[in-house]
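Cont'd.
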Amino acid sequence: MEESSKVIHAIYTDDDVLMSAVKKVKAERHHIEEIFTPFPVHGLDKAMGLAPTRIAIASFIYGCIGLTVAIVMMNFIMIEDWPQNIGGKPSFSYIENMPAFVPIMFELTVFFAAHLMVITFYLRSRMWPFKKAENPDPRTTDDHFLMEIAIHNNEKELAQLLKETGAVEINIIDKAH
Amino acid sequence: MYTFSNKLKTFSFALIILGLLGVGYGFMTSHKSLDEVKTMLAEEASAHGGGHGEAAAHEAVATHGEQSSEEAHVDVAEAHHGDEHAKHVQHQIANRPWSALYVAAFFFMMIALGALAFYAIQFAAQAGWSPVLFRVMEGITAYLLPGALIVLGIAVASGTIGHYNLFVWMDPEVVAHDKLIQGKSGFLNMTGFIIRGLIFIAGWCTYRHFARKFSIAQDNADVNDNRNFKKSFRISAAFLVFYIYTESMMSWDWIMSVDPHWFSTLFGWYVFASMFVSGITVIAMVTMYLKSKGLLPFVNDSHLHDLAKFMFGISIFWTYLWFSQFMLIWYSNIPEEVTYFVTRFQDYQLPFLGMVVMNFVFPLLILMNSDYKRIPWFVVMAGIVILCGHYIDIFNMIMPATVGDRWFIGIPEISSILLFAGLFIFVVFTALTKAPLLAKGNPFIKESEHFHY
């Protein structure tokens, strides 16, 4: 119990070094808990063996919702609630006026897909307003990379391995308190 | 070095011969006497039940505004009009093989020109992912010179040895009675048309010639000597400026002027989108063909993925322009502009709306998923539909002005496609044999080989 709450933090200063370190650690069959980086590192998710993201599917669904909202909304506003005669095109039929609504359909599709996707991403990353940062070391928001690995009675061995991979700093943290 | 396989060569010759036969057949059967046309029209009228009135109404909408203040003496006017209508239809029937040939010739020329623009952009942007594909692109652009000369040749021939089968403004008889064309004759005249056409072709092909030359010279140069690459970079930037002007003017000359009364200010962009996506699609397809033969071991999934992303993106770009052009004209509803879409909706509904499905809905749904962009047969399938869609796009640009409602995708059209497809394959794959398939001297070649998405 006490052992498993301990984690090791290895700090790197270069994303390429980090990448090869991740590959080496994975090759030794250690489970990487989390990695904190100041910017997205291309290919890191694959190297860590994370499951592929499903955000694209979510985004597609949001886009479909946006499209539907636009269609229903324009039908209500322009056809049912307050039909007007614009440029000699009286709004009596949705299908005949449809070309004028296409830009709105497009915009709302993009709007919904983009905004809801970002919000989903934040929530999925457990980030919401007034949330206290989980970030263990403020330097990872600047120019350092941090790899977190849980310790299971293998402190020395892990520290040795991480040192070999080019970590500039290794700290043992007890997360219990 | 790539060798043009005998099988493919035979195939391309077979296409050319089949195409030539069909095109010949199309021309032979397109000369109908006035009486034949009248019998044909009478048969159609009886089949449709009073279709004549309908046809006459079409005509009023479509092209000639000069009908009937002669309603008073109906019998005379009717007979006279019948004759005129039959003559009109006779001319449309005669136009069909010319138009079919022209559409196909333009389509294949456009592929080469689109690929050339794509190639120039890679250099101007100093793209690191694409150099492994440069030789494929250079092979495709080899078709530009013959292809563009053929297009210009057909256009000029239609106004000299033909009977003004494509461009009515080439007909002095028409111009004499048409104030609008007279006003444009400073631009729309045969001499100007030929000179401009030759300038466009000369500019494009000069760039192509030097870019290819520098690309090969860079292969043979010392590792630290990037002078040829830099030269390529400079001429590519200059070419792109030249290209965007001339491509736009070319689209006015070679396409938009078939409807000399009509104009659209974004037409050049619209044609550009079509040629760009067709060019990229053909680059992807040739790449996949060569890779399936094991000739491009340095091309990986990620290159294919990027090409497919371009196919996807530019398809949407094309739709954006197609719709922008349509919506502004539809909304303002000005008669001289809107006739263009009225004809297309009345007589070309299937190809006109069908092409939006092929060029937009289909690639959108098929190529949206990231994983599908890496599966060759998927991309090939999407590519075939996109290419057919853009052929129909060009078809819709030319045919309504030349053959009106007498269109069909039959022997003249398909044979013309076969003819130029054969020629295209022959020229492109011959050009591919002329240099190694890897532009090994390009300073970005290592980055490109290791390109990984």
